[in-house]
Write a structure and sequence with these properties.
Elements (H helix, E strand, L loop, with lengths): L2 H16 L4 H13 L1 H32 L4 H20 L15 H14 L2 H13 L10 H28 L6 H31 L1
Length: 212
């Protein structure tokens, strides 16, 4: 697979793993509303560091595991597809609230980024999501030993996550008067639907493989 394709796949993964509205997204939206675009991005950059570390652990961890259980790729995809569907359903049913949980004070780049990093790195669902996604990629994942491909996919994840934070901070700053809990619900419904669709497509691929 071409290196550009690894970047694009990673970019898409970075978007769908960052988009679900959890504590970090709510924190970024609060900061963007109360303190402006830059502070929303500051929060996001802290989460990007955590997501990138998790992506590195997941993609190299999955590659290491598959070296020993190459005959169990279908099992990995079955489990990964199920986890993605469960995560998507959970995100769909999550109802975040914009008010509360943050005092809106400006703490500067380091304070905002550190707080977001700690919130993201201590979320066990994030690493499980990355493992499920990378495990479910099958032949679209870099082969064992393809370190350049793996690093490019990780770079894509970081780029996708950064794009999300810059975009959401810009949109919130511009349209902050329209942001409410209903908007957050819609964002989670979209993110949850994408994850459930991804999980379903993995099972569809497995079904076609069995019939082939």
């Amino acid at each position: 697979m071409a290196f550009l394709e690894y970047l694009l796949i990673g970019f898409f993964i970075g978007i769908i793993t960052t988009a679900p509205v959890g504590p970090v997204n709510v924190m970024a939206i609060q900061h963007a509303i109360k303190s402006g675009f830059r502070h929303g991005v500051y929060v996001g950059l802290g989460a990007v560091v955590a997501d990138t570390l998790y992506a590195i652990a997941a993609i190299f961890g999955v590659s290491t595991v598959t070296r020993f259980i190459e005959g169990q790729i279908d099992l990995i995809e079955v489990v990964g597809g199920a986890l993605l569907f469960i995560f998507g359903l959970k995100i769909w049913n999550t109802h975040p609230h914009l008010n509360g949980g943050d005092d809106g004070k400006e703490h500067g780049f380091l304070g905002d980024a550190t707080a977001a990093f700690l919130m993201a790195i201590t979320n066990p669902g994030t690493i499980l999501a990355f493992i499920a996604i990378f495990g479910g990629l099958g032949h679209f994942r870099p082969a064992h030993g393809d370190y350049i491909g793996a690093l490019l996919m990780v770079a894509g994840v970081a780029a996708g996550a950064c794009t999300w934070w810059v975009t959401i901070s810009a949109l919130v700053t511009r349209y902050k008067s329209r942001i409410d809990d209903a908007w957050l619900d819609r964002a989670n419904h979209i993110a949850g639907a994408i994850l459930m669709l991804f999980g379903s497509l993995i099972y569809l691929k497995l079904a076609f493989d069995l019939l082939a």
